[in-house]
Amino acid sequence: MASEPTPQSTPEAAEPLLVLDDIQAGYGRAAMVLRGLTIEVPPGTVVCLVGPNGAGKSTVLKVASGLLKPRTGRVLVAGRDVTGQGPQQMLTSGLAHVLQGHSVFREMTVAENVLLGAYTLRDKARIDERVAFVQELFPIVGERWKQLAGLLSGGQQKQVEFARSLMVDPEVVLLDEPSMGLDPKATATVFEQVTRMRDAGTAVLLVEQNARRALETADLGCVLDLGRVHISGPASELLADPQLSELYLGGRPAARAETGGA
Ligand SMILES: Nc1ncnc2c1ncn2[C@@H]1O[C@H](COP(=O)(O)OP(=O)(O)OP(=O)(O)O)[C@@H](O)[C@H]1O
Ligand SMILES: [Mg+2]
Q: 18, 83, 94, 175: which could join 171 in a potential S-S bond, CB 3.0 to 4.6 Å?
């Protein structure tokens, strides 16, 4: 495992779908949050970014989706430099962002919530095709299509958010703490859906507090510390590293396994 701030090695040498290259970013006059951060998301992978509260995980996703412009560094999607584009252009370029917390409109139906994700699409046949796709991927979305989204459980609402993000058929979906506030069963379903998204052809950059569970789901992992990627590599190697477990994953794997902790 590398312990230097270099991009993670990829299982195969495919060109990454998303590259954040040497990013410096922050808010106003405050000190930089990201200080030379580099992350790559190869096709067909879930890349998980872990780190303590306030480390800058959400900031990384905001830079990727155009909500925050980097001071320096580049954002590349499928080899194309999209640095400085705003959120709508980023969406069109292939980056969809599912924000931290809950973002369904409770007083709108599941259908209306999902179709909000299609606002950049013009072709009715294309929209119908995408609706069929997300309903197949997330069966609950199809089953509850005409119900108010507020009547769904937290985990089901998260799947509505996933469905909305996939309407534009993004290259990479950016997921910020999808398991936040969910019970263990709903958390397990949400992580299952993350791998289903990957298997259906969308790469995922996943940010999680629930670091151990997220790394068990991910193909590659990165640990964010002091505004840079401190450690990166195959998720299974990060999970097996005792020092990393102690520092970032809340103790040793064996100790957690005894409690069955989800
Ligand atoms: N809109 C903002 N304006 C000013 N500072 C901000 C803003 N958003 C975040 N920050 C600051 O940037 C730093 C990183 O925040 P960020 O939300 O990226 O962390 P995080 O790793 O996602 O944390 P958490 O695990 O709590 O979600 C923090 O010091 C935070 O206070
Ligand atoms: Mg956050």
A: 94
Write out residues with Cβ below 6 Å of ligand 1. Answer: 27, 30, 33, 51, 53-59, 100, 209
Main-chain dihedrals φ then ψ at residue 121, nearest 5 degrees:
-90, 140
**Other CB atoms within 10 Å distance of the CB of residue 11:** 12
The residue among 77, 64, 10 whose CA lies nearest residue 34 is: 64
Which residues touch 260 (CB under 8 Å, ≥6 apart)?
none
Compute φ and ψ for 139, nearest 5 degrees: -55, -35
**CA–CA distance, 18 with 34 (Å, rounded to integer):** 17
Does the pLDDT value for residue 243 go beyond 80?
Answer: yes
Question: Whose Cα sits closest to atom 24 in ligand 1?
Answer: 53
CA of 67 to the centre of ligand 2 (A): 14
Tokens, residue 151: 């009547």
Of the candidates 149, 230, 161, 226, which has an alpha carbon nearest to the alpha carbon of residue 194? 161
Binned at pLDDT 50, 70 and 90, residue 238 comes out as very high
- Render pLDDT for 194-228 as a digit per residue (tens, 0 to 9): 999 999 999 999 999 888 999 999 999 999 998 99
Contact 108, 152 (CB under 8 A): no
Given a cut of 90, whether residue 251 has pLDDT beyond it is no
Distance CA 64, CA 36 (A): 14
